[in-house]
Amino acid sequence: MSKSIKALAAFGFVAIVAACGGQQEEEVVIIEPVAAEPAYNKY
User: Which PROSITE patterns match (predicted)?
Assistant: First the structure.
């Protein structure tokens, strides 16, 4: 194979690996504090 075909194949392989392996989404979990409801003992 010629050098240009080898270089093109290597570039394509690197591009595919970078596109598939570089995407890692982080999950963000927001925890809201639980506040007790006020209790009225008027009645």
Answer: PROKAR_LIPOPROTEIN (PS51257)
